[in-house]
Amino acid sequence: MVGHERQFHLYLALAMPDHIHLLLRPLQKENGTYFELGAIMKGIKGASARQINILLQREGALWERDSYDRMVRDEEEFQEKVQYILTNPLRKGLATKIGEYPFVLDLRGETETLPV
Predict the structure, then answer these.
(1) How far, in Å, CA of 40 to CA of 6, rounded?
(2) In this structure, is residue 114 part of a structural domain?
(3) DSSP 3-state assignment of 41?
(4) What is the model's pTM?
């Protein structure tokens, strides 16, 4: 999120009352290396915390310092993570079926992602 260079491809985002799930893939830089996940998360947390604090007219830390990252190695594991994320509101009693929970951004079928 530094500058305007897109650093990751976002597949799925789901906001729960006390945490957020993101399914994303770091993009490759021109030099062949990939953007670092830690830097991506720092950018997401920083930008979102600033905006949320403005909206709530508050200051201070918003997110926990650490993230719980998982490496997805194949299509099967990708689909497992999708199901875990989409069923999280059901497990917490916030919805009764997939698709009912409103705080989901599902870009898995998109050819273009948001410029993040």
Answers:
(1) 10
(2) no
(3) helix
(4) 0.82
CA–CA dist 87, 97 (Å, integer) = 8
Return phi, psi of residue 9, to 5°. -105, 120
Whose tokens are 């509101």? That residue is: 89
Number of structural domains, the chain? 1
3-state secondary structure of 57: coil
Task: Determine, yes or no, domain membership for 49.
Answer: yes
Contact between 26 and 37 (Cβ < 8 Å): yes
Question: Per residue in 9-19, pLDDT tens?
Answer: 999 999 999 89
Domain that holds residue 62: 8-106
Give the Å distances, CA to CA, from 114 to 20, 63, 76, 92.
18, 22, 25, 28
pLDDT of 41 over the 80 cut: yes
In a domain, 115, yes or no: no
Position of tokens 């993570």?
Answer: 81
Q: Does residue 18 belong to any structural domain of this protein?
A: yes
